[in-house]
Amino acid sequence: MTERVANIIILAEDQEHEILVKRYLQRSGHNERSVRPVALPGSRQSGSQHVREQFPKQVKECRGTLGRRASCLLIVITDADNLSTMQREQMLHAELERMGGAHLSHTEPIVILIPKWQVETWIKCALGQVMSENDKDSDRPPVNAEQIKLAARTIFEWARPGAQAPATCVPSLLTALPRWQKIG
């Protein structure tokens, strides 16, 4: 997005996802006051279920904001888990349609980011670790706030026009880099 965005909505499945997006936004010069994270799910609901259920509501919110002389950006980040990243995205689109929402246009300010099993795979990959896309345990050991900040900086650099991600970049992150670029 070339213009500064007045309203940024982050729909994430857990704290690590949300922090990564916030750090990326900071790196790309967005004002923290314009960021509104959707409340994270409680312990009674899975993160991916939370994102699926909130997605239509947040798309509607973003679309409604656009018509009132304000710019909006919706950033959705959820894991694919046992699905492919494409299947997870199709589930989001199906939920939007089921709730009566119109299909997303590629020109809409909506960015969907989908790591395979866990966002920690992206974070550790960006920190230079060789990671497997299919590692269900990439959240062990856990990552800390400083590691997430450093990973966001690296992802920002990899998403710049003309930049080349290293060969060790996991496929889901490599595929998502143009979407990260759309953020800022």
Order of helices and strands: EHEHEHEHHH
The major beta sheet can be summarized as: 4 strands, parallel
Q: Whole-number average pLDDT?
A: 93
Q: What gross morphology would you assign?
A: globular
What is the number of helical segments per DSSP (H or I, 4+ residues)? 6
Helix content: 40-55%
Distance from N terminus to C terminus (CA atoms, Å) equals: 5 Å
Order of strands, main sheet, comes to 2-1-3-4
Strand content: 5-15%
Class by SSE composition: alpha/beta
Low-confidence stretches: none
Global Rg: 15 Å
**Topology, number of strands:** 4
Explained architecture:
This protein starts with 6 loop residues before the first strand and ends with a helix. The chain has 184 residues and is of the alpha/beta class. It is 45% helix and 10% strand. The chain has a 4-stranded parallel β-sheet, with helices on both faces. Helix 3 links the parallel strand 3 (72-77) and strand 4. The model has no long low-confidence stretch (mean pLDDT 93).
Summed up:
By secondary structure, the chain is an alpha/beta fold. The chain has 6 helices and 4 strands; from the N terminus they run βαβαβαβααα. The radius of gyration is 15 Å and the shape is globular.
